[in-house]
Specification:
The chain is an alpha/beta fold. It is 40% helix and 15% strand. The chain has a 6-stranded parallel β-sheet, sandwiched between helices. It starts with a strand and ends in a 5-residue tail after the last helix.
Length: 303
């Protein structure tokens, strides 16, 4: 039996409930000055709005060193009734100051990931439930290869899934060549994010053939065509026999995108995206994408 590791403990995969498979309650980056997600009250209000829309779980992909506020997550989960999954891992180098990144390069990165998955994040006692890493634009640089190699080592030690930020939706096949080909991570333990940002049906099918999970998360902040093409991409994958590999997420990364600040926020996934996808592929598949699939994608037979 597999379990999803939430900030309040492990939950049976089948009991996760309606899930936003990729989002952020907290996030800081030097690339987004003045747009930080760092407000506990706003995070609580956002979770309450998501709960009111029918949501039950949120997977926060914010990795190590980007202000994930792990210590605040258990209280937020208890107060709102929304299950929260926290991440370990490392984003692109541009999201860190050189000094902190240098300290990480001086240690054993895989050991940090394993520790946060099995023992807890710092002194919080909160254990991560996934490893987040990132590719580059149409390729992988040395930093991406370093972090993905560490993620693969941590996966082999724990079974934890590896969730991958694809820069503007590109580089999916390079990521799979490295993680699944060179590093031996099973395809079903890899989750590719942002595929809606590069709606190439051929690449989507090739990626799906590896057995990986395909996450469609948005809405887009700039490339609006990806929003109306996303249902087409999901339908094409379902018709090609890959409907069992699909996930949905909101990916709220800046303060102005929260629903409590006038943006779409977490509720938009259930308030609008769900409705639009239902028209394209029917309610049964959409229910699976929001319910059963996240439990399977993030479920692990934790030791």
């Amino acid at each position: 039996m597999t379990h999803v590791r939430t900030v309040l403990g492990d939950v049976r995969s089948g009991d996760l409930g309606v899930c936003d498979a990729h989002d952020h309650l907290f996030l800081r980056s030097p690339r987004l000055p003045g747009q930080e997600l760092d407000d506990v009250c706003a995070a609580r209000a956002e979770l309450e709005a998501f709960r009111a829309a029918g949501g039950a779980a949120v997977v926060q992909w914010t990795p190590h060193g980007m202000g994930r506020r792990a210590a605040d997550l258990p209280a937020l989960s208890r107060a709102t009734g929304v299950r929260i999954v926290c991440a370990t891992g490392l984003h692109q180098a541009a999201h860190y100051d050189p000094e902190s990144l240098g300290r990480l390069r001086g240690g054993r990165l895989a050991g940090l990931f394993v520790s946060e998955l099995t023992e807890g994040i710092g002194t919080t006692g909160v254990r991560a439930g996934l490893i987040k890493v990132a590719g580059g634009f149409h390729g992988l640089d040395a930093h991406a290869r370093w972090t993905m190699t560490a993620a693969a080592e941590a996966h082999h030690a724990t079974g934890a899934p590896i969730a991958v930020h694809l820069e503007l939706g590109t580089g999916a096949l390079d990521v799979l060549d490295l993680l699944c080909g060179e590093l031996g991570v099973p395809g079903e333990r890899v989750i590719l994010g942002h595929l809606n940002r590069s709606p190439d049906p051929v690449v989507h099918r090739q990626a799906a053939a590896s057995g990986c999970w395909l996450a469609f998360d948005g809405p887009s902040r700039a490339h609006h065509a990806t929003d109306w093409r996303m249902p087409e991409a999901v339908r094409a994958l379902a018709e090609a026999g890959f409907g069992d590999r699909l996930l949905l997420g909101g990916d709220t990364v800046v303060a102005g995108a929260r629903s409590v600040d006038g943006g779409p926020g977490l509720p938009y996934l259930l308030r609008r995206v769900r409705q639009r996808l239902t028209e394209a592929v029917g309610p049964e598949l959409v229910d699976l994408m929001l319910g059963e699939h996240p439990g399977r994608a993030f479920g692990v037979a934790w030791a």
